[in-house]
Design goal:
The protein is an alpha/beta fold and about 230 residues long. The chain folds into 2 domains: about 5-95 and about 185-200, Nucleotidyltransferase, domain 5, CATH 3.30.420.40; about 95-180, ATPase, nucleotide binding domain (Nucleotidyltransferase, domain 5). Helices cover about 30% and strands about 25% of the residues. The protein has helices at about 35-55, 70-85, 95-110, 150-155, 195-200, 225-230, and strands at about 5-10, 15-20, 25-30, 60-65, 90-95, 115-120, 125-130, 135-145, 160-165, 180. The strands form 2 sheets. It has a 5-stranded mixed β-sheet, with helices on both faces. A 5-stranded mixed β-sheet has the order 8-7-6-9-10, covered by helices on one side. Strand 7 and strand 8 form a beta hairpin. Helix 1 packs parallel to helix 2. The N and C termini lie far apart (about 65 Å).
Length: about 230
């Protein structure tokens, strides 16, 4: 059975899970905000010590590949690539929205529903993808500006669950009787266990040298208002 180090840093939650054969051996999670740069190294060190103490061979590193927080994704992917280079092991990339959908399906266990994973992209925009209960992609990830007319064709088909840190702000506009919301669901490294195991078994690896996070849309840096005002003076 393969031993995989899973890393998830796409939201304000930072998490690491060491898994073997799809089962979680060690999990470290912080919900305390965007402190990934500090916490991730500590969590990874604990996981590597766990492997060393038990003489277990680490076979691969899996990382949540996006979309999500630009900074969070950069931190997670950089750590994953560094480990793969240093240890000479393969890299696995798992789409963040699929990880989130996996969590929602496990919570509801409803086979005939659709699942819309949403990550916040500011204002009324979200990064979203739609899956069925078997995690087959019904609609590919995109940046959606959410209105009452965003998902009518899907909502007409039956129950549809919305979840992720972008879903709460959509409750007021998605008022269909088929729209249901799952609160406080975040993509976690432990939710990657079966997904990374499947990828490893199928030999679905990334090119460590060229792999980049899936941002979905270009990152645009902004200048703080106080900086602009000071320059004008």
């Amino acid at each position: 059975m393969s031993c995989i180090l899973n890393i998830e840093t796409s939201t304000q939650v930072c998490s690491v899970a060491l898994t073997q054969g799809g089962e979680v051996l060690l999990e470290k999670v912080s919900f305390e905000g965007p402190s990934h740069a500090v916490l991730l190294g500590t969590y990874v060190e604990e996981a590597l010590n766990y492997v060393k103490e038990r003489a277990v061979k680490l076979d691969a590193v899996a990382v949540s590949s996006g979309p999500g927080s630009y900074t969070g994704l950069r931190i997670g992917v950089s750590m994953a690539k560094g480990l793969c280079f240093g240890l000479g092991i393969p890299l696995i990339g798992i789409h963040t929205l699929e990880i989130l959908a996996k969590k929602a399906v496990s919570v509801t266990q409803e086979e005939n529903a659709l699942y819309c994973a949403m990550l916040d992209a500011r204002r009324m925009e979200v990064y979203a993808a739609i899956y069925d209960a078997s995690l087959q992609e019904v609609r590919e990830p995109s940046a959606d500006i959410v209105t009452s007319e965003t998902y009518p064709d899907y909502l007409m088909k039956g129950r549809m669950y919305f979840f992720g840190n972008g879903a709460a702000k959509c409750k007021e506009v998605l008022t269909s009787e088929n729209a249901f919301f799952l609160d406080d669901l975040y993509p976690l490294a432990s939710d990657m266990a079966s997904l990374s195991e499947k990828a490893f078994t199928g030999g679905k690896f990334e090119d460590v040298a060229y792999f980049e996070p899936f941002y979905l849309k270009e990152f645009v840096a902004t200048i703080a208002k106080n900086k602009v005002l000071s320059d004008v003076k």
